[in-house]
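Appendix C: a fully annotated inverse folding record. The material below is reproduced so that readers can follow the format used throughout the book. The structure is listed first as tokens, followed by the designed sequence.
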């Protein structure tokens, strides 16, 4: 990804990244295309990780495992930041170069400690694909291209296998949408730990907003999530007006893109809050002796 670092930096052409995407080969450089896609729609991706966490809490089979680690209730900041750092390392450097290779091995080793159902691996990857594309398509400053859509699908298909999945993702976006929707209808249901985990992460995300508007901030984030997920987390679905308001704010936010490559890096700021003296890859993740998840 080294070439990606500079072709927006210092230029006034907002379509510089898109032209690079058009130049790259889809079959061999889908990771680079995906990285450029995220860079071009950076400002509208805030709710991606929030929605992703809630989705894993909405399925009891996953929430039981997540609760057993103790990370999300007692070390929320570390859990959130570690997830972002490990995933970012893989996307930035790929599976064949450091530190991406070590990050992928770290995640795979972590997953092997737990009895994770194969459908859960696939569903989490499908959620990342659909959530990312949906945010860009609804709120982005330019249209998303078919090449970007396919690159994102290919990237998360590869990532899912690298992170421990034995099953491939559906080979079309239509198939991914169908799998994800059927999965939620079948697996999303309330158990008490779902709410505990959701409330712990919500409390962490609240700190991103000024104290006076924290409740509104969370309602706006929740308004953009699938109601099936919200209900399974034991949370009330916000009234429709909040979804409308969230859409207006996000469309306005999307106009900030594309941001220069030298714009402030929020990932680095989050990492510094948890690891003020820096970190090693070996410190990231939930590498503890897991308790068996209840059946």
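Designed amino acids, in order:
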């Amino acid at each position: 990804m080294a070439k990606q670092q500079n072709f927006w930096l210092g230029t006034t052409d907002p379509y510089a990244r898109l032209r690079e995407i058009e130049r790259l080969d889809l079959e061999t450089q889908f990771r680079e295309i995906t990285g450029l896609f995220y860079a071009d729609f950076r400002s509208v991706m805030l709710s991606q990780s929030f929605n992703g966490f809630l989705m894993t809490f909405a399925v009891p089979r996953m929430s039981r495992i997540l609760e057993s680690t103790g990370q999300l209730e007692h070390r929320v900041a570390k859990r959130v930041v570690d997830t972002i750092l490990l995933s970012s390392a893989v996307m930035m450097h790929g599976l064949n170069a450091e530190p991406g290779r070590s990050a992928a091995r770290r995640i795979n080793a972590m997953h092997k400690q737990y009895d994770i159902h194969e459908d859960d691996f696939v569903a989490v990857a499908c959620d990342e694909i659909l959530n990312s594309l949906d945010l860009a398509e609804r709120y982005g400053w330019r249209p998303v291209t078919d090449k970007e859509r396919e690159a994102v699908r290919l990237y998360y298909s590869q990532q899912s296998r690298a992170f421990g999945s034995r099953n491939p993702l559906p080979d079309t976006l239509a198939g991914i949408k169908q799998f994800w929707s059927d999965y939620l209808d079948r697996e999303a249901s309330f158990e008490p730990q779902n709410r505990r985990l959701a409330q712990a992460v919500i409390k962490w995300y609240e700190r991103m907003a000024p104290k006076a508007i924290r409740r509104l901030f969370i309602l706006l984030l929740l308004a953009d999530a699938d109601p099936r997920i919200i209900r399974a987390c034991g949370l009330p679905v916000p009234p429709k007006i909040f979804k409308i308001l969230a859409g207006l704010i996000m469309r306005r936010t999307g106009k900030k893109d594309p941001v220069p490559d030298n714009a402030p890096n929020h990932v680095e700021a989050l990492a510094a809050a948890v690891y003020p003296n820096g970190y090693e890859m070996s410190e990231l993740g939930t590498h503890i002796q897991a308790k068996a998840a209840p059946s």
